[in-house]
Amino acid sequence: MLLLASLAGPLAGCVTDTYPLADPPPYPILPVDESMTCSGIAASFRYSARRAARLEYWLARGSLEGYGNERFPLDGPKQLVDERRRLDALSDLQRFKGCTVMEPGPAVVEERLRLEGSVHPAAPPVVLHSRG
After folding, report:
1. Crossing angle, helix 38-61 and helix 104-119, to 10 degrees?
2. How would you classify residue 67: left for phi > 0, otherwise alpha for psi between -120 and 50, otherwise beta?
3. Which of 10-14, 77-81, 107-111 has the lowest mean pLDDT?
4. Is the full-model pTM beyond 0.85?
């Protein structure tokens, strides 16, 4: 018993601080991106802008019932930040390689408008009645 009491004192102060383990930040540029041509980087940029627009749209709209996406309200904002970082990195890569630079903000807005236009039904066509 005396041995246990003598060890409890020095061991009690061993743990002083705890550090939360965070996920490492994703790599915005993949090794394959650096070897792409300007048109390949532009295609990757457009795909990333489309993905960011979809994430923004679904975060604004809310979750759909029954689709098994309970974690989306928690994971969606982080994914959107990651996608924005990738867009910034691809723009920087376009500048570095001397390509035509696509700006992330306008590209995402354009994709979002395209997405919202495809989701909302079009107005019914106007039918002209002729008198005859």
Report:
1. 60
2. alpha
3. 10-14
4. no
- Using an 8 Å Cβ cutoff, are 76 and 58 in contact? yes
User: Could you please report the per-residue DSSP string of 74-111?
Assistant: HHHHHHHHHHHHHHHHHHHHHHHHTPPPPPHHHHHHHH
d(CA 41, CA 26): 18
3-state secondary structure of 67: coil
Exposure b/e, 66-77, CB count within 10 A at least 16 = b: eeeeeebeeebe
CA angle 80, 82, 88 (to 5 degrees): 105
